[in-house]
Amino acid sequence: MKIGITCYPTYGGSGVVATELGLELAERSHEVHFISYSQPIRLTEPLPNIHYHEVVVTRYPLFEYPPYDLALATRMAEVAEIYELDLLHVHYAIPHSVSAMLARQMLACDHARIGRRLPYVTTLHGTDITLVGSDPSYLPITRFSIDQSDGVTSISEYLKKQTFDVFEVKTPIEVIPNFVNCDLYHRTAAAMQHRTEYAKPNEKILVHLSNFRPVKRIPDVIEIFDRVQKEIPSRLVLIGDGPERSRAEWLAVKKGIHNKVEFLGKQDRVHEKLPVADVMLLPSELESFGLAALEAMACEVVPIATNEGGVPEVIDHGKTGFLANVGDVDTMAKYAIELLSDEAKLKQMGKQARASAQARFCATKIIPLYENFYRGVLARSS
Predict the structure, then answer these.
(1) Which residues, in sequence order, are CB contacts of 12 under 8 Å at separation 6+?
(2) Which of the residue ranges 13-22, 51-60, 134-143 would you say has the lowest mean pLDDT?
(3) What is the rounded distance in angstroms from the CA atom of residue 382 to the CA atom of residue 377?
(4) How much of the chain, in percent, has pLDDT values that exceed 70?
(5) 42 close to 22: Cβ distance less than 8 angstroms
(6) Rounded CA separation 349/95 (Å)
(7) Taken in order 111, 114, 119, 122, is the CA torsion positive or negative?
(8) What angle do CA 64, 70, 74 make, to 5 degrees?
């Protein structure tokens, strides 16, 4: 198949999943065309069957906010026609599903020349439904573009339910969970040698990975670590960047622990960083899935997260990780201290986390679900 993929190319779950999906599809001999305003962050090198098409948004004094959605729709239609795409797959409803709908309509005007109808699939990821899409300014168009989609998927049962509850959409939604490349994300002896870059031999390593938005509750990460480091010799490694980084840096200074906290910023090769850690902290206010937790689990890193959204669908409390209420930094710190104090239990839970990721969320299990979904959409659209 020839598939056009549009996502936000920034450091966030939807862009990561969309990019990894494209890479996996290309590995399976599909032709993948990324269409976005910049190259996705995890698309780091030229690869067979992967193509990137930049969306250029011309700025005019008339436009206070340049109409990216219209430029995107135009580029989608151009790429689809020139490269004879079979379908578009957009990640994040606003504005991508609206742009795909416009592109489909534009091409419909040339149906006689093109000879086919271009379907589009929308994948819902989280804040496009729970935050942005539910805003009264966007709710009607979000609902309409979802219902106009030729196929809709969500990354968790939680998000599927939220979409039906908030938007009352009529289109069926199929749950296809996020995934991880288990061959890439795993703990190796070579990876463990890098522990000395971040900690002394007697110290444990806690890690956090996100786009540092307020919903991720980065100050809670610092609060939890502060409690842990008072009981266990340890270091904190933070991967990613965003608006809450400065606040977290100052909090670490205020608590006098900044020399034990390392901010790595955005990293392309996350799979090389995660395996050195022992525990991941994910105290988010809401996660529609919890991709960072899954990537950690695949690397035998035990996640400690909040019991919200789709996270309980990923983490089996007490077996593959721990769950606590939002804001309960004391309980999360307690879980971390108890686990890091018991080496045997830490290793056992790390192995169980890895086994769960392999059994339920490996790319080899999830990518065929997308392929079958695409085939169903194409069959209905022919």
Answers:
(1) 211
(2) 134-143
(3) 9
(4) 93
(5) no
(6) 40
(7) negative
(8) 140
Triad 34, 268, 295: Cα angle to 5° = 95
Domains recognised in the chain with CATH numbers: 2-179+363-381 (3.40.50.2000), 189-361 (3.40.50.2000)
CA-to-CA distance for 123 and 89, rounded, in angstroms?
7
pLDDT of residue 123: 94
* Residues whose CB is less than 8 angstroms from the CB of residue 302 and which lie 6 or more positions away in sequence, other chains included: 278, 279, 280, 296, 320, 321, 322, 339, 346, 349, 350, 353
Residue recorded with tokens 């990821």: 125
Supply the pTM of this predicted model: 0.90
Q: What is the share, in percent, of the chain residues with pLDDT greater than 90?
A: 71
Rounded CA separation 339/259 (Å): 23
Q: For 152, phi and psi rounded to 5 degrees?
A: -130, 135
Question: What tokens were used for 277?
Answer: 């850690």
Written as one letter, the residue type at 187 is R
CB 143 within 8 A of CB 168: yes
Q: Are 208 and 221 in contact (CB under 8 A)?
A: yes
Number of H helices, E strands in the chain: 15, 13
Q: What is the rounded CA–CA span in Å between residue 165 and residue 21? A: 28
Of the two residues 348 and 41, the one the predictor is more confident about is 348
What is the phi-psi region of residue 256: left when phi exceeds 0, alpha when psi lies from -120 to 50, beta otherwise?
A: left
